[in-house]
Amino acid sequence: MYLNTFAAGTDPHDMTATDEFRSLLTSAGELGIPHRPDIRYRSANVVLRQMRFHYLDWGAPDAPPVVLLHGGHQSAHSWDLVSLHLAQTYRVLALDQRGHGDSEWARDVEYSNHTMSLDAEAFITTIGLQRPVLIGHSMGGRNAMLLAHRASALLRGLVIVDVGPELSDKGRQAIAGFVRANQEFDDLEHFVQSVRQYDPYRPREHIERTVKYNMLQRADGKFVSKCDATPRRLGLTHGRSLQDNLTLDDLRALDCPTLLVRGANSNILEPDAAERFAAALPNGRLVTVPEAGHNVHGQNTKGFLAALTPFLASL
């Protein structure tokens, strides 16, 4: 059983009349996130590369487009506060990537960064977006870098959030440990407590309001992660092929305007690795957001927006 609302078929679903949207507005008010009172916000589905993908569509259809790619074991809803604010000026499209959120699981269990970058490219072209700004966090940032490296002419700009060619093994192990320990629960309170220990930046109330986007209730009554766990059960690994990994030298050819955003307390992207990444970019800049770890946009949304909005305006 799904715990959240999303479009049931091919017709978009207006999300502004839902309790979920009212809950989001409560969080925005508590955190001081500015937004318009008459925002357009819809849930929709699209078929890409023989799979069904769910996405969230915010803002005026004719506004400059921004595409958001979430991190691993997250969903399009991880961007909700950011989307709510940006929709005042932009059309914001947040994609549930394959095997995540409310998108379909891959029948061939193919979840490489390369494959997911092809999904994102197909999304941009199928929806008919004209040179969007592409923003990706963690896994989504890796996918965004691959897309930009392959087809930078599709993009107006690129924003990479707390990921890069050089990552901390300790941080990756911490994330992997959290994921392994948070797959199945008897009640949602257990998951809320686990998230609070892992993420001390977000208030409990905000975690409680968003837990429904990460979990569903199985037929036996247990709550399980929405993310497809088949690769882990089968012992499959992705992200190690030449197609999946970019080096600093590869990124020296990335000519589109690029913003790298790092959380000041990130355990994934070390300060020196972030500086090397930014220095390799021909048209790049680095901004470090205080009071945030790896999940920068969720842990310090106002700080993230302060880093992001001047970059978007410059484009």
Number of strands: 12
> Low-confidence spans: pLDDT under 50, at least 5 residues?
none
Read across the widest sheet, the strand sequence of neighbours is: 1-2-3-5-4-6-7-11-12
Helix percentage: 25-40%
Distance between the first and last residues' Cα:
42 Å
Number of helices: 12
Largest sheet: 9 strands, mixed
Radius of gyration: 18 Å
The coarse silhouette is globular
How large is the share of residues in beta strands? 15-25%
Order of helices and strands: EHEEEHEHEHEHEHHEEHHEHEHH
Structural class: alpha/beta
Mean pLDDT score, rounded? 93
Overview in brief:
The chain is of the alpha/beta class and 315 residues long. It contains twelve helices and twelve strands.
Provide structural commentary.
The protein is of the alpha/beta class and 315 residues long. It is built from 12 helices and 12 strands. The chain has helices at residues 19-31, 80-86, 113-127, 139-151, 169-181, 188-198, 204-210, 230-234, 248-251, 271-280, 296-299, 301-314; strands spanning 13-14, 41-48, 51-58, 65-69, 91-95, 133-137, 157-161, 184-185, 215-217, 223-225, 258-263, 284-289. A 9-stranded mixed sheet has the order 1-2-3-5-4-6-7-11-12, with helices on both faces. Strands 8-10-9 form a 3-stranded antiparallel sheet. The chain is globular, with a radius of gyration of 18 Å.
